[in-house]
Design brief:
The structure holds 2 protein chains of 2 kinds. Chain A is an alpha+beta fold. Chain A has a single domain, classed as Chemotaxis protein chec (3-Layer(aba) Sandwich), CATH 3.40.1550. In chain A, helix 1 crosses helix 4. Chain A is globular and about 55 Å long. The two termini of chain A are about 20 Å apart. Chain B is an alpha+beta fold. In chain B, the strands form 2 sheets. Chain B has a 5-stranded mixed β-sheet with strand order 1-3-8-9-10, with no helix packed on it. A 5-stranded mixed β-sheet of chain B has the order 2-5-4-6-7, with helices on one face. In chain B, a hairpin with a 5-residue loop joins strand 8 and strand 9. In chain B, helix 1 packs across helix 2. The longest helix of chain B has 16 residues. The radius of gyration of chain B is 15 Å and the shape is globular. Chain B starts with 7 loop residues before the first strand and ends in a 5-residue tail after the last strand. Classes of the chains: A alpha+beta, B alpha+beta. At the A-B interface, helix 2, strand 3, strand 6 and helix 5 of A face strand 3 of B.
Chain lengths: ~220, ~170
């Protein structure tokens, strides 16, 4: 039996670097979205959090209804990525994308509405991934997205399970980015990345090389 | 739903909780996880486990607190805890909900389905009857067990439905 207790301890440098990475990637993603819908969008400073699986559920509003897409990441940095829009934001987005009057969309029922949101999520996910891939000089291929409109808790739970299926760890590194449009027209969203444990190790080792392993306190 | 009712306990992913009347046990936003509720109507003791994956086999990370992650381990652990709280196995009934598949890309993994199968298999081995079940589908559920009545309510984004009260 292997004795393993893969507890992740990020050094201050690693945490800063990951935050910066999340920042760059989110900016790319949100810029793509802003161009698409022609609205200025602000992003809150993204946060990278290393959380235990059960904590994660406490960080989010589990009952909140969101429109979300899930993509699987293939390549060196495997894992899952989710883009979530709270219901109201999703409706506003559909109004914008489909040229409706703001306030027209009140539910997500037709395939047109679903696919509009799926495409939006996909654009965000793809630009997020390509920024991350550039940074690590690797490729990161998102699979075609799938869509759901339901409780946030269940969606995040789904991603957790998917990662847990790949390898057992009690912790998740979460890139979390909240954004909203300038006039608070209620476009608000989240990008959540759930890297596999192998991906996390790879990310950390690259970061370590970048500083020449000066403090050498990463886990080996 | 009224937030943070003081008589309510929230059962997080991979966790379990056993309590007695008048408390309520709640799991919010169940996707492909299974919410398993056990109830003894005489003792008015109820328990709930929030189960993530079917089997712990081959995985050494199943330490104490989160051991209810896996169906094969969660069922006996929950039953033991019920017994410790004066519930009797002969009177215990089971209700389960969840096991949905929200995203089509994850359909092939059939995690929800396998979870439900494993939970039922383990309950069979324990000799505990499943009196109500609401599993599968492609929607999320919030469930609540009332330990006064044994009633399990299931809420989806479209509304509330009760899955059978404790008639047995």
């Amino acid at each position: 039996m292997r004795e393993r207790r893969d507890m992740l301890e990020l050094s201050t440098f690693q945490r800063d670097a990951l935050n910066e990475l999340g920042n760059i990637a989110s900016c790319h993603a949100v810029t793509a979205l802003a161009e698409m819908i022609g609205v200025t969008i602000e992003i809150a400073v993204p946060k990278v959090e290393v959380v235990a699986i059960e904590e994660l559920q406490r960080l989010i509003d589990q009952d909140k209804i969101v429109a979300g897409i899930l993509v699987e990441l293939e390549g060196d940095l495997s894992g899952y990525l989710q883009v979530l829009f709270p219901a109201r934001s999703a409706f506003t987005l559909v109004d914008m994308l489909m040229g409706r009057t703001n306030g027209d969309t009140k539910s997500i029922e037709t395939d047109m509405e679903r696919s509009a949101l799926m495409e939006t999520g996909n654009i965000l996910a793809s630009s997020f991934c390509s920024a991350i891939a550039d940074f690590f000089h690797t490729t990161l291929m998102p699979t075609p997205p799938s869509f759901a409109f339901d409780m946030m808790g269940a969606m995040v739970e789904n991603a957790i399970i998917a990662v847990a299926q790949m390898q057992m760890t009690d912790q998740i590194i979460l890139f979390r980015c909240d954004f909203k449009d300038e006039k608070e027209l209620t476009i608000h969203g989240y990008i959540l990345m759930f890297p596999s444990f192998d991906a996390v190790k790879r990310i950390l080792s690259v970061l370590r090389e970048m500083v020449g392993d000066s403090d050498g306190n990463g886990q080996g | 739903m009224t937030e943070m009712d003081k008589d309510s306990y929230y059962v997080g992913i991979g966790e379990m909780k056993v309590t007695h009347n008048p408390h309520q046990l709640i799991i919010m936003g169940l996707g492909s996880c299974i919410g398993l509720a056990l109830y003894d109507r005489n003792a008015k003791v109820g328990g709930m486990a929030h189960i993530m994956l079917p089997e712990s086999a081959g995985r050494c990370r199943c330490s104490t607190k989160r051991s209810c992650k896996f169906a094969d381990r969660a069922v006996p652990i929950l039953v033991d805890e019920m017994l410790r709280r004066n519930a009797a196995k002969s009177r215990m009934v089971a209700k389960l909900a969840g096991g949905a598949s929200l995203f089509t890309t994850m359909d092939t993994l059939r995690i929800g389905e396998k979870n439900a199968e494993m939970v039922k298999e383990k309950l069979r081995q324990e000799g505990i009857r499943v009196v109500a079940e609401d599993t599968g589908g492609n929607y999320a559920r919030t469930i609540k067990l009332d330990t006064c009545t044994g009633r399990l309510s299931v809420k989806t984004k479209d509304g509330v439905l009760f899955i059978e009260s404790a008639s047995t």
